Amino acid sequence: MLFLAGDNFSSRNVFNSLCHQYLIPGFHVGVDIQPAETTGEIVEIKVETRVVMPYSGGGCLRCQGLIPAAKLQLEGLSADDRVRQGYFGAEGLRDVPEPSVMALNVLSVAPAVNDILMMFTGLFENEADMQSLRYLPLERRYFRVANSDPVPCRHCSLAKGSLYAMGDRARLPCRRSDQLKASSPNVWTWLTSLLKGSKK
Length: 200
Ligand SMILES: [Zn+2]
Description:
The protein is an alpha+beta fold. It has one domain (2-172): 3-Layer(aba) Sandwich (Rossmann fold). The chain has 6 helices and 5 strands. It has a 5-stranded mixed β-sheet, with helices on both faces. A hairpin with a 6-residue loop joins β2 and β3 (42-52). The structure holds zinc ion. Zinc ion (ZN) binds next to loops. Residues 60, 62-63, 153, 155-156 line the site of zinc ion (ZN).
């Protein structure tokens, strides 16, 4: 079972590849808080528990439009190139605070953990459907999110060139260390300090 609580498109891409390449069910959890561009007033909050079953139509993030190629390409650029191409404007280089609200995160993670428990204990009823869940706290509304129809996809389909069920025979879309250092200097610094600390 895989569990993703990442904040960028590259991590979604690696997670979705892992699920389909190695046929592992996954959960993508997170909270999306959208402020109005001009006033900063919060206009939408979405609490997501996305289910990714490793088959076509099972919630593949690519098929749901959650891994746009253009965004992936921008994330792969160096910090300088991102500013040149207007990625988040000048904000792209600043450490923008991303507040986390524990009470909302719990709503996203708890259904996934319970699903994992029911799966591993075999307690799910046959009728239990594995659609993704969304909670809109501003409207106090909880509902299922239907998976979009399968499309030719290089993660979940059997089309030529797809990585579906390829296991170790296909390469995962992970960045090389030099690419990571150029595109995400803060992550690189954090990771290297973590590794140095673990050697002490
Ligand atoms: Zn797909």
